[in-house]
Amino acid sequence: MQGVRKILFIQTAFIGDAILASAMWEAWHTSFPEDEIHVCVRAGNEVLFQNHPFIHRVWTWDKRGGVLVRYVRLFRLGIGLRQERFDAVFTPHRHASSGVLARLTEAPIRSGFDEHPMRSGFTHTTRHEFKKGTHEVQRNHRLMDPWLESPVASSPRLYPDPHRFVEPDSGKFGVMAPASQWGTKQWPEPKWVATCDALMEEVQKIYLVGGPGDAPLLDRIQRATAHSGVVVRSSQSLLDSAGMMQAAQWVLTNDSGPMHLASAVNAPTVAVFCSTTPDYGFGPLSLKRAVVETLHSLDCKPCGLHGHVKCPKSHFDCGQGIDVRSVIAAIEKVSQD
Q: Alpha helices, DSSP H only, in the chain?
C-alpha cells in the first residue's frame, strides 16, 4: 500500500469496543509509522486516547438526543471527514452509522465486515464469524490483511500517564470493577463484599472503580465489607482508571469495559463471566490472566452475545454459581511474580 498517508479507523460502539479497536491502529502504526492516523469514536470515549503518542486526531459522534438529531450530527461529521481526503478507512463496527461515515469519506479504500448493513458502500469486505478460539482483535485485524504484511494481530493499548497514579506507600493494592451495564454480566454484589473480606490479609488497599453512575453500588460494597482499606473511585477518568490498573497487583472485573481497560495496560486480570462466555472472543488479553465461570453445567449459558438486564430464567445460576474461593485462587495465580 505505497504512498498511503491518511488512515481513518471508525468504532463508535461502547468503551470496550473502542479499546479493542486500538489494536488495529497499533498494528497499522507498526507497519507504517509515518502514516497519519485518525480515529472516530462515540462522544465520551475520546478521553481514552488523550495524549496518545501517534494518533493525529480523534473525531467524535455525539449519540445523545433523538434519532433525527443524532443523524444530523452524523452527516455533518461525515462531511468533515470527507474534507480530510483519507486514503483508507477501516471499521470493525457493524452498524449502519459506521457504513454511512465510511461512504461519506469517499476514500478509495473502505474496509468493513461482510455482514454490515451498508456493505455495498465498502470497497473491501471480510467475513465476520464467532469462531471458538478467535478473539475479536483477530477478527478486526483481518480487515487490514490485504495491506499488512504481518498476520499477527497486535494487542489493544492505551497510554495513561505513568505519573498520574503513584501509591503513596509501598503496600500492595488491587483494583475491582464490580459494575456492568448488563445485569446478567455482573457478579452478585454480596460476592464482591465477600471477596474484599477474604483479601484483608493479602492486600492493604482495594480500589473500587467505575463511573459516576456506579457510585451507589461501589459505596454499598465499601460500607458492607470488613476490609478497612477499600476506597471508592467513581469520578476519575477512564484513562486514570487504566493507569491505576497498570500499577495494581491484580484487577478483578466482570466481562465488561474495565476488563478491556486492564488488557490495554497488560494488568494481571481475573475476569468473571456470568451469563456470557469468552468463547465469543471477548476475553482478557493480559499476559497474566484468568477467567472464572460457574462449574455447574447450565443449558441456558450463554444466554446471548451481550447481557440482559435480568436473568431470562429468573434464577441467575451462572452468577450465583461462581464461588468466591475460585475467584480468590485466580487472583493468587495472576498476582504471582
A: 15-31, 67-82, 96-105, 136-141, 189-198, 215-224, 238-247, 257-264, 317-320, 324-334
How far is residue 242's CA from residue 13's CA, in Å, rounded to a whole number?
19
How many residues comprise the chain? 337
Domain boundary assignment for the chain:
6-144, 173-334
pTM passes above 0.85: yes
Instruction: For 166-206, write each residue's pLDDT tens digit.
Output: 665 556 899 999 999 899 999 999 999 999 999 998 999 99
Rg (CA), the chain: 20
Q: What is the pLDDT of residues 90-125, one digit of tens each?
A: 999 999 999 999 999 999 999 999 999 999 999 999
Give the end-to-end CA distance of the chain in Å, rounded to a whole number.
43
**Residues forming beta bridges with residue 208, ordered by sequence position:** 176, 232
C-alpha span between 182 and 89 (Å, rounded) = 31
Contact (CB, 8 A) for 175 and 251: yes
Q: Which amino acid is at 194?
A: A
3-state secondary structure of 145: coil
- Orientation angle between helical segments 257-264 and 15-31, nearest 10 degrees: 30
Q: Does domain 173-334 have CATH number 3.30.70.100?
A: no
Architecture category of domain 6-144 in CATH: 3-Layer(aba) Sandwich (3.40)
Q: CB-based contacts of 93: which residues, under 8 Å, 6+ apart?
A: 10, 11, 12, 13, 17, 112
Q: Cell numbers for 298, please give them.
A: 447450565
Q: Would the CATH topology of 6-144 be identical to that of 173-334?
A: yes
In DSSP terms, 207 is beta-bridged to: 175, 231
